[in-house]
Design a protein that fits this description.
This protein has 22 helices and no strands. With about 500 residues, it is mostly helical. It has a domain of about 100 residues: Tetratricopeptide repeat domain (Serine Threonine Protein Phosphatase 5, Tetratricopeptide repeat). The chain is elongated, with a radius of gyration of 45 Å. It starts with about 100 loop residues before the first helix and ends with a helix.
């Protein structure tokens, strides 16, 4: 039998055409199939007999009434399995292009429906995933990190992860929170996961770079910062973090370049102004440092780091330029920083330094006790704060207690072998004890650690002068003035030598 639509041969008894899908009506016995009208005046044809060479002729089978057996038989196609009623032969239409074939179109429709079904099945099989909620919670976690509320940020990131564990920013912000909490290895794992989920996610590389920087793995840190900037040339935070890494490595010009790039992308990013202020302070450009700290404070009047940095600049100016009024201004800045964060250890150290400066400038011994109280508070908050031990040592030097000073400064070096201030101050203590060899060694170490540090050059000049090395002393005093043109003590030393 054949399909009345497409003309394809079908097995006997087929109900639906397997090619076009049309229902195939059963043939009407002895007549035309439904839908195929016989020509008017014609007779219904009996089946054609098999060829003589294959099967012997047999008498015609009895026909239904009204169909003469002697009617002439029209020529009909012959199938291998036998003939079929002539009236059932369909009219063959021209073949369609394959891409318009109903079977092809039906297959495409089926595949589309199947794909939609698979997507729905996957979605419905994860009833706990809520991408919109995860996005909102991850944003909140990032905002909390910026506010340094790291424990809250971690909790918010965990909630975001519960909403959708496949959202990369969630892992990134959890890594940032863990960096803030000092959980650097755990932060690395989170940053790795964020990168696995989205290999082109710039912020994830930045977060991982910070983890490596905290772990002092600068090679990997720089590689991640570079990748973050490559993926997003306007990632101002990546420039800012890379600048800080350069600052830690004493590569001050590179640090300045990156801070400038960060500020160019985002002129209102307070942390880059504060960081650039730290660089200017390190290279003794006090006015530029003060301007940057002022800018950071104007952007955020509650930004504690800028008050602390400005206080540090004023203390350093007071020490080197012999401007005691700077100590009082510094005290106000440290007080403000501590008011903003009563657990800010660095601000207590800074305020202690200001008290020492006031005590020396105005001959107020009670200021040294106030300084020691601030250093003690800093150590209460951070028992491994090497700068607090440096401050205690400096206070004891000013109090004339070098034995105690040596113990404090040696402890500072034990905690941080790269603390240039500790070597410088211990060198001062050895100088006062006339142990010039030890004093020279500590001054040299301080210079090696911090090439822009003017004070150890001045102190080494004093040692050379005490040893009778006039030219070497003059060279060191000049170097101190070169690094800090306002260094009054070095200027006076040269004047005393007639230079």
């Amino acid at each position: 039998m054949f399909c009345t639509r497409c003309g394809k041969e079908l097995p006997e008894g087929t109900r639906f055409c397997k090619y076009c899908g049309r229902e195939v009506p059963p043939p009407v016995p002895g007549g035309a199939a439904p839908g195929v009208k016989a020509a008017e005046g014609s007779v219904r044809a009996a089946p054609k007999q098999a060829a003589p060479e294959r099967v012997a002729p047999t008498p015609a089978a009895p026909q239904p009434a009204g169909i003469p057996t002697s009617a002439p038989q029209p020529e009909t196609p012959q199938q291998e399995a036998g003939g079929f009623p002539a009236a059932a032969i369909p009219v063959l239409r021209p073949a369609r292009p394959w891409w318009k074939h109903p079977l092809f179109l039906g297959s495409i429709a089926f595949l589309l429906v199947a794909a939609v079904a698979v997507i729905l099945a996957v979605t419905l099989s994860s009833p706990g995933y809520d991408r919109a909620r995860a996005e909102q919670l991850a944003r909140e976690a990032g905002d909390l990190v910026e506010e340094e509320r790291y424990a809250e940020a971690l909790d918010r990131a965990d909630q975001a992860m519960a909403a959708d564990p496949t959202y990369a920013p969630t892992y990134c912000n959890r890594a940032r929170a863990r960096n803030g909490l000092g959980e650097y290895e755990e932060a690395l794992a989170d940053a790795d996961k964020a990168i696995e989920l989205d290999p082109a996610y710039s912020e994830a590389y930045r977060a991982r770079g910070n983890s490596y920087r905290y772990l002092k793995d600068y090679e990997r840190a720089f590689a991640d910062y570079d990748r973050a900037i490559e993926l997003d040339p306007e990632n101002f935070r990546a420039y800012n973090n890379r600048a800080y890494a350069y600052y830690e490595q004493k590569k001050y010009q590179l640090a300045l370049d990156d801070y400038n790039s960060s500020i160019k992308v985002n002129p209102d990013y307070k942390r880059s102004y504060n960081g650039r202020g730290d660089v200017y302070l390190a290279i003794n450009n006090y006015q530029a440092a003060l301007a940057d700290y002022d800018r950071a404070i104007s952007l955020d009047p509650e930004f504690k780091y800028a008050y602390n940095g400005r206080g540090n600049a004023r203390v350093k100016m007071g020490n080197a330029h012999k401007r005691p009024e700077e100590y009082q201004a510094a005290l106000a800045d440290y007080d403000r920083a501590i008011a903003l964060d009563p657990e800010f250890a660095a601000a207590y150290v800074g305020r202690g330094n200001a008290h020492v400066g006031i005590g020396e400038a105005y001959a107020r011994p009670e200021e040294y006790q106030a300084a020691l109280a601030d250093y003690d508070k800093a150590l209460e908050l951070d028992a491994e704060n090497s700068n607090a031990y440096v401050g205690r040592g400096w206070a004891f030097i000013k109090m004339g207690q070098c034995d105690k000073a040596l113990a404090e400064l040696s402890k500072a070096i034990e905690l941080d072998p790269e603390n240039a201030w500790a070597y410088n101050n211990r060198g001062v203590c050895y100088y006062q004890l006339q142990n010039y060899e030890a004093a020279m060694a500590d001054s040299n170490k301080a210079i090696a650690l911090e090439p822009f540090f003017s004070m150890p050059y001045y102190n080494r000049g004093l040692i050379h002068q005490a040893l009778g090395n006039r030219e070497a002393a003059i060279a060191d005093y000049r170097k101190a003035l070169e690094l800090d043109p306002g260094y009054e003590l070095a200027r006076q030393a040269l004047a005393n030598l007639g230079v």
